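Class prep. Sample record?

___
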Amino acid sequence: VTVTDGNGCNGSDEINVTFLETLDVIVSSLIAPESKCYDGEEQPVTVELTNRGTKTFTSGESLTVGYKLGSASAVTENHTFTSSLAPNATTQHNFSSGVTLSTGDFTFKGFTTIEGKTGDTTSFAVSIYEHPNLNLGPDTIKKSLPYVLQSGIGNVTYSWNTGATGASITVNEHGKYWLTVTDANGCVASD
């Protein structure tokens, strides 16, 4: 900038401003695995990444994305951008291997590493629920009628093949009877 005073004297100064791009991409959400009823099957691991920094990542640039499940060793993979990721934009990363979770509560901790610096770690809770324990007894019962079939469990909704919705039914005819129960987590069992 140059200034001139009332006497015609000039003065000037300059400053060099350098824009420092911040590199800050976080694991902003856990898309999978999600809380669900136990099925013993492998679930994919998919996370959403959010660019909280000022740098726009361009196609071909990469970072490391990882997660830690409980006390297990961290799983890390390279994520190469296939399109630009502007500030505040999001993208997904699908890990090459899934996880098989038993029943229980788990904590997934997601993180990224950019140019050797690990960013913030974010935590996500995942619960794998047990199915209700339903057992109506032996599959063949020879009893005199009427006979009462009891579910033996509570805190579930009941759906008998007869259309009944109570914890027990009174059987007045010989035949096949079954019950499907659903708990508060949506887990189902039948017998």
Q: What stands out?
A: The chain has a mean pLDDT of 92. The longest strand covers residues 104-114.
